[in-house]
Structures are given as structure tokens and as C-alpha cells.
Design brief:
By secondary structure, the chain is α/β, with parallel strands linked by helices. It contains eight helices and eight strands; from the N terminus they run ααβββαβαβαβαβαβα. Helix 6 links the parallel strand 6 (202-206) and strand 7. Helix 6 (211-224) packs across helix 8 (282-301). Bound molecules: zinc ion. Zinc ion binds at residues 95, 107-108, 139, 172-173, 244.
Length: 302
């Protein structure tokens, strides 16, 4: 669904400026202060888990750990829930581990900061759907797309319990934008024909099965957000389409979409030691998150 590629001339509202500073502070905490966080940096992984749990708790929501063991070490998915009028769940999630050798500011400090910011904004509101905010452990290799991936463990438990998840929204690397010509590339040449070559938009991606959810989300996003967006429902096997926690929910027959700046197809510091907090564009990052707040509000009313 290629959209019109308008330049980013938007100014931030006072609420969006507050949001931007929350995002900046939380990315700084995760990637600047805690830094690399994964099973090789286990103390830091747990420091990130503590930080997320405390951040959820400070919103007034009850935060809990959904844990499993990996070769004798405890790993924690962290969740906070708003009980809605209905039992159907809209789940907003992001992985909080970083890849080996990287402090993970954009991947995925950005997604976690956004998840916390959205939890703050919905806490205390009355919603139709139950809203669940989840930070996932162990998304990055060697757990990536394996049975030990935090979100797959989590999604399997949801399925086994009979949780009715009507939408899973995966926030994956959402803070880098560029206005330079040819700053955007694609996993296949065919896609490059249809989509812009300037990396100034946010992407919404799903598998073919989740195309109705994708269509709704992109319509809502374009109605409200002040930043260009591109949407695509693509076969899961196209490189990049399955590359985050939405894959785990697809595997359990739940509809899911990924929100992403397209990570390796745009971000020069992807999976490197240079994925640091200073690389993010916090203005446009804030516009993505304020747009997603409207998407969740809209999906909640359906
Ligand atoms: Zn990631």
C-alpha cells in the first residue's frame, strides 16, 4: 500500500514534546546507562527487566513477569494489563534484549520506550478491549525465530490458555529517519519499484493472513499521524517480514503487525556497537508513537 510521500514538516504539540522527552529518557536509560543486555550480559538484561517492571508499575498498572528457564537461567517477559469491558486483547509488545555487541538504542530501546510510553497514556482509561503491554526477552540471535525466543514462549502460553488476541502490535526499531536520497533500500528489487527511496516514513508490515488488521491500522495511522507511512501485507518468507515478535503470534494463529523503520534496510548502525541513543530522531519517533496511540484507540473501538 504505497502512500503519498510528504516531507516531514510537522511540528510537535505540547503533548508530543512531553512524549518525545519520555522516549529520549527511556532510550538513554536502556541503551546509554544499562547498555548491552542479553544472555552474555545477564546482569544488564535483568537490570532492563527491573527498569521495565518499575516503569509499568509507576503507570499504576499491575506489572507481572512471565518467566521461563534457559540452560538454568531465568528469563522474563514483562507484562502489564488494562482489563477492558471485553475479553478480547490488543497486545502491544517490543523486545528488550539487544543483539550481541550492541547497546541496542534503536533496536530495540526505541520499541520498549514506546511500549512504556503507550502504557502510561492508556493507564487509568476505560477501554473496550483488554490492553496488554509486553516487553519480550530473547528476540535476538541465537534465539531469533526459535523455540527459545521470549515472544514464542509467551505466545504459546497465550494459545494454551485460550487468550483471545485480536491484534498483536510489534514495535521493532522505530526511531531512525533520513531525508537523504536513496536512504531507503528493500529486501527485493520488486518492492523498491513500489515504495519510496527516501527513509523518512514509518513502515507497517504484516503477513498475508493479518492483512485486515494491517489495513485498519494504516488507515487509522494516516488519518491521525503527522509522519508519512507505508503499509505492506507480504508473504512471511520475504526477508524482513518475519523479523520480530509478531512472527511468534503468527505461529500461534493470532493476527499481528510490525511497526518498523525497516531496520537493516535503512539504519546504518543496525546491530552494531554504534546503535547508540544519539542516532535516533526523537521528533519523528514521537510522531510515530503519538500516531500509534490513535491506532490503538481506533482498534479498541472496533
Ligand atoms: Zn530487534
Amino acid at each position: 500500500m504505497p502512500g503519498k510521500n510528504i516531507p516531514n514538516a510537522a511540528t510537535l504539540s505540547p503533548e508530543e514534546i512531553t512524549l518525545r522527552e519520555e522516549l529520549r529518557a527511556d532510550v538513554q536509560k536502556l541503551a546509554g546507562e544499562i547498555g548491552e543486555r542479553n544472555m552474555w550480559h545477564y546482569a544488564e538484561l535483568n537490570a532492563a527487566a527491573d527498569f521495565i517492571e518499575n516503569s509499568f508499575s509507576r503507570t499504576g498498572l499491575h506489572s507481572r513477569r512471565d518467566s521461563y528457564e534457559l540452560r538454568g537461567q531465568a528469563c522474563h517477559n514483562i507484562e502489564a494489563e488494562i482489563q477492558g469491558a471485553r475479553s478480547e486483547i490488543i497486545l502491544i509488545g517490543a523486545h528488550y534484549d539487544s543483539v550481541f555487541g550492541s547497546p541496542g538504542a534503536n533496536d530495540n530501546g526505541s520499541g520498549v520506550a514506546a511500549t512504556i510510553a503507550l502504557a502510561r497514556r492508556f493507564a487509568g482509561r476505560k477501554t473496550e478491549h483488554t490492553l496488554r503491554f509486553v516487553a519480550f526477552v530473547n528476540e535476538e540471535p541465537p534465539y531469533f525465530l526459535s523455540g527459545e525466543m521470549g515472544s514464542l514462549v509467551y505466545a504459546r502460553r497465550c494459545k494454551a490458555r485460550g487468550d483471545r488476541i485480536s491484534a498483536m502490535i510489534s514495535l521493532e526499531t522505530i526511531g531512525y529517519f533520513s531525508d537523504a536520497p536513496n536512504s531507503q533500500v528493500y529486501p527485493s528489487r520488486a518492492l523498491g519499484v513500489f515504495y519510496p527511496k527516501v527513509g523518512n516514513f514509518i513502515g507497517l508490515v504484516s503477513n498475508v493472513h493479518s492483512r485486515t488488521l494491517l489495513r485498519r491500522a494504516i488507515d487509522l495511522f494516516r488519518k491521525h499521524a503527522k509522519i508519512p507511512s507505508e503499509g505492506a501485507s507480504l508473504p512471511w518468507f520475504i526477508p524482513g517480514v518475519s523479523w520480530s515478535d509478531q512472527w511468534s503470534f503468527w505461529k500461534n494463529a493470532y493476527p499481528g503487525i510490525m511497526i518498523t523503520d525497516t531496520a537493516p534496510f535503512r539504519y546504518p548502525y543496525y546491530h552494531s556497537a554504534n546503535d547508540t541513543p544519539d542516532k535516533l530522531d526523537y521528533d519523528r519517533f514521537a510522531l510515530v508513537v503519538s500516531g500509534m496511540e490513535k491506532v490503538i484507540e481506533g482498534l479498541d473501538k472496533l
